[in-house]
């Protein structure tokens, strides 16, 4: 346990030294600010930039528009940022050979991977929930009359999908000793998830639901009972990715 805590602290220190923690916090905080501001002022901006004589009817923005921006930016930008920042989580260790001394001195290889996963998970957790809290605060300020009954379900679902991608990234980091292999594996994994939807008989198990139907959850048209299968599949993929990564890492030459 001491080795796990010590190596996890080392990972977090690395994130501060290479500015990944600062970048993640700054970018996600910016997204958190932009989400409600875009929802609030975009209709006015569109109206001002329209040519004279052309009128468009835009509904009055609501709190739902703010959360639409949150989930749009969370899936298209937030997850992309995290994947890019974490793609090289093992590359420098392989390149510099820093793991050799640790392993030869008795540090279990599985401890290294669990610490890597924990550090990445903490980076994602702090960034994501900071973005959420900022969006929530500004949304309550600009749209005080709005109601969001299933907000917890929708935001937790997207958060879990982020953990899924981190687990796949870690597996890719073990398979490929560079920063590009994990990106390619994660991209291929996402492609499989998109193709999965082409088969209606198994689509209800697709983890992609957690990141693609958040507004349906928020509006109550997709309930927790309907998410049990994709949630179970997400847990299985995370567990199997970590298990496979450990098994492969135990046989990998450092």
UniProtKB/TrEMBL annotation:
GO CC annotation terms, alphabetical: plasma membrane
Transmembrane segments: 21-42, 74-91, 112-139, 151-176, 183-199, 231-249
Protein name per the record: Abc-2 type transporter
A matching Pfam family: ABC2_membrane_2
A GO MF label: ABC-type transporter activity
UniProt KW keywords: Membrane, Transmembrane, Transmembrane helix
């Amino acid at each position: 346990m001491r080795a796990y805590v010590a190596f996890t602290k080392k990972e977090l220190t690395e994130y501060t030294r290479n500015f990944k923690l600062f970048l993640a916090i700054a970018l996600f905080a910016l997204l958190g600010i932009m989400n409600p501001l875009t929802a609030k002022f975009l209709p006015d901006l569109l109206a001002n930039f329209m040519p004279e004589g052309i009128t468009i009817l835009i509904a009055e923005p609501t709190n739902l528009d703010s959360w639409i921006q949150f989930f749009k930016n969370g899936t298209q930008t937030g997850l992309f940022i995290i994947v890019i920042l974490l793609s090289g989580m093992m590359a420098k260790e392989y390149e510099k050979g820093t793991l050799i001394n640790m392993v030869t001195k008795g540090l279990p290889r599985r401890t290294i991977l669990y610490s890597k996963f924990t550090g990445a998970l903490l980076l994602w957790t702090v960034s994501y929930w900071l973005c959420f809290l900022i969006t929530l605060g500004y949304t309550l300020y600009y749209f005080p009359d709005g109601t969001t009954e299933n907000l917890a379900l929708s935001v937790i679902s997207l958060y879990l999908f982020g953990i899924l991608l981190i687990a796949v990234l870690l597996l890719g980091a073990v398979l490929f000793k560079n920063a590009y292999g994990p990106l390619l594996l994660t991209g291929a994994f996402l492609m499989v998830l998109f193709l999965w939807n082409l088969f209606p008989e198994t689509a209800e198990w697709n983890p992609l639901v957690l990141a693609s139907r958040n507004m349906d959850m928020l509006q109550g048209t997709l309930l927790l009972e309907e998410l049990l299968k994709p949630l179970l599949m997400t847990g299985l993929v995370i567990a199997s990715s970590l298990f496979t990564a450990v098994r492969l890492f135990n046989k990998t030459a450092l």
